[in-house]
Design goal:
alpha/beta; 10 helices; binds NADP nicotinamide-adenine-dinucleotide phosphate
């Protein structure tokens, strides 16, 4: 592991972190810092973590307007840049929230995120969810919008045209999708002028999504993996009795013990070696996660052992997006291979 000394702290050389090559030829660090404080970490704590993570060697930050902390994170990004890190060395993602899919809202929302983050451009802007349903931040999973709508491809493409315009305007370098399925992505790939560079999706050892992962890679789309540790700090509303925790898995525990690292770091190492880009959230352990990526890899046998513990256990089910009575959350994820009819 290449170490450099910065501000008295030993940091990991960003040049020793693997990079993902996007279809545009741009490169993106293969690990980023998540910034969703799961309702219990304050914006100031997240902004501190961004500063500390940059000092530790992170160059990739996963933001979103709905996380409610872009103004605070922006102050940190500005000071990282004035402190000597060049803008082009950073990879900053933000996301369009679900109540801003309207054609007049997309560019304005992106400009607001840019102003809050104190940046002239974003490296990546994602449509956060394919459902244009407003629900108040922090609402319960049983909450339903009276105006809830299903995925309507024509409408999604109207939003996507505006995303493409953001690239034309030079406000964003890449655009991408999040929380998509193969049937929805096939339609977007058919109709996009600028195809998605990235799909952000839940991936951890207990929810590996092998088909979707394979599909995006085959289509030249990078997979960013959210909840890479199994989101142990997620809000109560995002928990169900069936959920399992990859960090409690005996296979992960055994590998962690063998390497003398935390089970969370095993999840991060596995993610990077498998080929997705994990974006672990952390205010206390971000240095260990980056060091894990820069350090000794897991063995091929260990990678195979982890491949075998997939439980198809989706943690972020998206119940608030259901649009009519009698549905279950599986309807949001097109499990029958076609977009669930309205
Ligand atoms: N596109 C989407 O719809 C979407 C959805 C969900 C999340 N995301 C993004 O993905 C990011 C990550 O997901 P997440 O925050 O839900 O879950 P996560 O990254 O799987 O888990 C974060 C939790 O793990 C703990 N942790 C991290 N590293 C650790 C380590 N080495 N040892 C022990 N504990 C460790 C953190 O605690 P400490 O703070 O104490 O370290 C925190 O409680 C979010 O922040 C957000 O940026 C995107």
């Amino acid at each position: 592991m290449k170490l450099v000394s910065q501000s008295g702290l030993v940091s990991i050389d960003p040049a020793s972190i693997p990079q993902r090559r996007l279809y545009t030829g741009a490169t993106m660090p293969a690990i980023g810092l998540g910034t969703f404080g799961s309702d219990h970490v304050t914006p100031a704590q997240v902004a501190d973590a961004v500063l500390g993570a940059a000092a530790a060697g992170y160059r990739h930050f996963d933001c979103a307007s709905v996380y409610g902390n872009e103004p605070e994170v922006g102050v940190s990004l500005e000071s990282i840049i004035t402190g000597g890190v060049k803008r082009e060395e950073l990879w900053v993602t933000s996301k369009l929230w679900n109540d801003k899919h309207g054609e007049d809202d997309v560019i304005a929302s992106c400009r607001k995120s840019l102003a809050d983050l104190r940046l002239g451009y974003l490296d990546l802007y994602l449509v956060h969810w394919p459902f244009p349903n407003f629900h108040p931040p922090g609402c319960d999973v049983s909450s339903r919008s009276a105006d809830a709508k299903p995925y309507i491809h024509e409408n999604y493409m109207k939003t996507w045209r505006k995303m493409e315009e953001l690239v034309d305007l030079g406000l964003v370098r890449h655009i991408g999708t999040s929380n998509m399925t193969i049937p929805k992505l096939k339609l977007v790939l058919r109709d996009a002028r600028i195809k998605p560079a990235v799909n952000e999706m839940e991936i951890h050892p207990h929810f590996q999504q092998p088909e979707l992962f394979q599909f995006v890679i085959e289509n030249g789309i990078q997979a960013i993996g959210y909840c890479p540790i199994g989101s142990p700090g997620r809000p109560e509303r995002d928990r169900t009795p069936e959920d399992t925790a990859p960090t409690d898995d005996p296979v992960i525990a055994k590998i962690a013990q063998r390497h003398g690292i935390h089970p969370a770091v095993v999840c991060i190492k596995w993610a990077v070696q498998r080929g997705q880009t994990p974006i672990p959230f952390s205010i206390n352990n971000y240095r260990a996660n980056l060091a894990g990526v820069a350090g000794d890899p897991l063995s091929e046998d260990e990678i195979l052992e982890i491949a075998a513990i997939d439980r198809n256990c989706r943690l972020i089910k998206g119940q608030v997006f259901l649009w009519k009575d009698g549905q279950t959350w599986e309807d949001l994820w097109d499990i029958h291979g076609v977009v669930t009819p309205p």
